[in-house]
Records
---
Amino acid sequence: AQSVTQLGSHVSVSEGALVLLRCNYSSSVPPYLFWYVQYPNQGLQLLLKYTSAATLVKGINGFEAEFKKSETSFHLTKPSAHMSDAAEYFCAVSDGDYKLSFGAGTTVTVRA
Amino acid sequence: GAGVSQSPSNKVTEKGKDVELRCDPISGHTALYWYRQRLGQGLEFLIYFQGNSAPDKSGLPSDRFSAERTGESVSTLTIQRTQQEDSAVYLCASSSRGYGYTFGSGTRLTVV
């Protein structure tokens, strides 16, 4: 069975600062990994996904994530935060079957 | 359609009443999922449909919850005798290859 742990339920950053959201996974097989973003009162939108190709994955809105097998991590970063990045972010893992397991989410606030 | 459509977007119901939530997946997506998101919490898997296979109902919290899907089209999630703890956002997602979901905007259910 696979699972995901997101470290930090709330992250606050200044506009223009680095955004770093941490995600560690557990999986008995090579995982598929995902980051989703949820803006207020909206559904979840796929930011990026790792499916065993390049370990550094680039997504939408300037976000990227690096798969590190040795650390079982898939942290999400963005070099310079924008006010529009304020949202909730979810990391998810799949063993290649059909069901994703989601982390508890990290809420990002951006200070002007 | 272009995206996953859910209706209604908001539903307020009295305790003890039955409610029916609807999901229209992306055309051609064989897999359809229902998740529940309680306030301030992560996503809780409810049920999964894949083509004509028997659905995975392992996440349904009680026998008051049921879901149906006709072929690869519309799905309905029914909650009978609603309770206050059923208040949540119910999210539907579909996918074509078993990973990487496209989510709908959700139905916000409030039981009063």
---
Amino acid sequence: GENVEQHPSTLSVQEGDSAVIKCTYSDSASNYFPWYKQELGKRPQLIIDIRSNVGEKKDQRIAVTLNKTAKHFSLHITETQPEDSAVYFCAASRGGGGNKLTFGTGTQLKVEL
Amino acid sequence: DAGVIQSPRHEVTEMGQEVTLRCKPISGHNSLFWYRQTMMRGLELLIYFNNNVPIDDSGMPEDRFSAKMPNASFSTLKIQPSEPRDSAVYFCASNFRPRSAVATRANEQFFGPGTRLTVL
């Protein structure tokens, strides 16, 4: 089955700096890669996703890149703000096989003032 | 739209008791997922349903766990008997999966608020 590894497990940045979280996956058939943000005590919520037919996607301060050959994808947050502090999860899915998501282990992002 | 609804939000029970968690997916969604979240193991998929049919239950930890989806608007996850190591937050999520036989595009999974289970 799919295996998703995520690094780093914790990340501390100064407000205004950029943050990068990286994930690798094992199943070459995976074609859908969402990122979820989970605030303390809350549910995971989708913040951005990318499909295997594109290499990069951007939404305001958030961007995701995908390298299919190397089987890794990354989340980039620019101009970080305190409200970006949360746990971020990457995930991978074959999409067509029933939408089963395999999650990474999460990254605790702390944005310091 | 009320989103995915889960009940109860918190459950405290004693070891050996039966626990039933409930989920109502978003209206119109035809896929439902049960996840368990712990500090040690992260977010784990337990089981998921497409059109009320269980598709993959390989994540169910053992026979003490069972899940049902009797109709498109309701699912239960049951633990019997419960054990302290079952303590976790259990999330239900739903999405819409097109019925096309051709490889379909995955869509966003919407998570419920979760049930925090504590087994003493």
